[in-house]
Amino acid sequence: MDTITKVLLILSVFIAGGLAFFQYLYKAKNKSKLNLFLAFLRFLSFLAIFVLLINPTITTNSFEIEKTPLVVVMDNSTSIPFLKSNVEARKVYQKIVSNTALKEKFTIQSYQFSKDLQLSKRFNFKGKQTNLDAVAIGLKQTYRNKNFPTIILTDGNQTTGADYVYSFDTANKVYPIVLGDTSKVFDLKINQINANKYAFYKNKFPVEAFVSYSGDQKIEANFKIYQNKAVIANQNVSFSPSNKTAVIQLLLPANAIGLQLFQATISSSKKEKNYFNNTKNFVVEVMNQKTDIALISAINHPDVGTLKRAIESNSQRKVVIFKPNIINGLNKYNIVILYQPSSSCKSVFDEMKLAGINSFIITGTSTDFGFLNQQQNELQFKMGSQSEDYFAGFNSQFNLFALDNIGFESFPPLQNSFGTITTKGNTSVLLSSKIKGITTQSPLLAFVENQEKRTAYLLGENSWKWRAKSFVDNHSFEKYDVFIDKIIQFLASNSSKKSLEVEHEQFYNSGDNIVISAQYFNKNQEFDEKARLNISVLNIQTKAVMNYDLLKGSNSYKVNLDGIPAGKYKFTVTELNSKEKYSGYFEILNFDVEKQFTNPDFEKLNQLANQTQGKLYMPAQIDTLLHQLIEEESYKPVQKNVMVRTSLIDWFWLLVIISFLLASEWFVRKNNGLL
């Protein structure tokens, strides 16, 4: 309580006493005991009211013991019973949480995880994915700025998420308890199958398989690929203790149009403990058409080769590079890419207009903007002779096609001549331009639809740096190549946009995220944020029907169908206001990724323990771990002083006292004829 408040309280005592004396004793001829009692009641009433008005703050101190959290995390995925460790895991867990000395020293918090982290004291071991990275992220958020130990009961085999070894806070010790038999057994495994998503009818497409072996003997294995139960590829593989991995590369024929399901297997004459990881399914869509693209450039530039590689990452695309003066006959090409056009491209523009071919125009410091203004009326260029660096800004409201932001704002700048670019007509801007963090009024990547013709404009050179930056960020060119493929896909079709567009995969593995996304556009071809989308899913085998609403995101509607069983499904997405419909098909393959492992990942869990200054233990060593935690000096309980400040105005009983005093004074006066 501060000095001013104390002074006010003292003054309140004198003022309350003075008022009570003046009202009951000052003019009273007979200072009876009744007057003295009434004066005392009035004094207490005035004093209580003054105290309420001053509203002093009362401070109380108390002490409490704060124990260190002990986090116990159980792997709740199906890999634990598959490794026959679920019973042992429960016994170890009960031994931890029931230890009296441990409970006296720590506040024990129990969690389970599979795909994500959840508070739990019961475990069913039915999780379809293992994500230890989610454990690290969840614990950092929950126990921020705290020093605590973590016990994780797991086999260490992660099926989704980032590398968990470096995700955990190194300031907090992690003690992994390894579940499963660490002794190596004979096992053949298909680790990964790489195949293009698309292939062309009557062509051959490449398939790459990564296979591995666990054992201590030389062995011959046989790798096969089946389609419709018929063997279409067969290759022998040799393994030894010094050669435990192999890469198999095959060319498969695309003899049927549409989605084709293939099954890869590896086997030997020796019996294995785990056959689940000997098989992998993959799907290839065989296309009957191919997109031919003419890339025309009068100059040599890294962008040209980068565009060709990015476009041809989709095997249904074929890019041919020409100089403007040697190309003859554009009719056989679906799209023309003009890189930094100049007056030498006059005949190309004339032929494009005559044939009605869609185009992708890319400008830069070597572009003749005066010539470009003459050849099109969609953008107006007023450019100077100096160059400028333009950074990208992503437009989340862009709705010509669905595209995620792949980090455009962090990409290196594109170089173009300095000036202003004015859009005309039906122009949609995907990327706006920025100069030194300031947004300009000019686009950086724009699309124009003019009747049945489509044109894309990328207004800057050095986009090869974007592909390189995307690779550095994602360890893959895939995101950037998909971005370019979306542009090509838009230009490859002249058909008007459908009101309802739905994106989905044809095949999913059990445990995968099964997400179906949709976009609905109004008559002005604008994304309709008030649409009501519903999906009806039919299991073809059981005839069971499920209905869900699609939830609106930033530029699409989505539904997550995780948890539905393996099988073949038909579905219909309906916009309930307009009754617009889209029907499709998908299949969930009975593939349990959690059963791909024969042994726990002892090495990685040991690496995690060392990274956090903890230690790895086997279930039989649980008593040693508990003893270490109990004796650990850095985890002693801490006594904390808890200071609580309470405003007197919040004290309910003060109002009750004031009411009681005033009521008592009234009754005394009434009963004694003083009213």
Description:
With 675 residues, this protein is of the alpha/beta class. It has five domains: 3-62 and 644-671; 68-183 and 599-636, Rossmann fold, CATH 3.40.50.410; 187-287, Sandwich (Immunoglobulin-like), CATH 2.60.40.10; 293-492, Rossmann fold (3-Layer(aba) Sandwich), CATH 3.40.50; 500-593, Immunoglobulins (Immunoglobulin-like, Sandwich), CATH 2.60.40. The protein is built from 14 helices and 33 strands. A nine-stranded mixed beta sheet has the order 16-15-17-18-23-22-21-19-20, with helices on one face. 31% of the residues are buried. The mean pLDDT is 87.
Q: What would the CATH topology of the largest domain be?
A: Rossmann fold
The percentage helix is: 25-40%
Whole-number average pLDDT?
87
Secondary structure tally, helices = 14
Structure summary, number of beta strands: 33
Shape: extended
Distance between the termini: 40 Å
Radius of gyration: 37 Å
Tell me the strand order in the biggest sheet: 16-15-17-18-23-22-21-19-20
Strand fraction: 35-45%
CATH class of the largest domain: Alpha Beta
- Describe the largest sheet: 9 strands, mixed
Our count of domains comes out at 5
CATH architecture of the largest domain: 3-Layer(aba) Sandwich
In terms of per-residue confidence, which ranges show pLDDT below 50 for 5 or more consecutive residues?
none
Question: Which structural class matches the secondary elements?
Answer: alpha/beta
InterPro entries: Class_I_gatase-like
Organism: Flavobacterium keumense
Protein name: VWA domain-containing protein
Transmembrane segments: 6-24, 36-54, 651-668
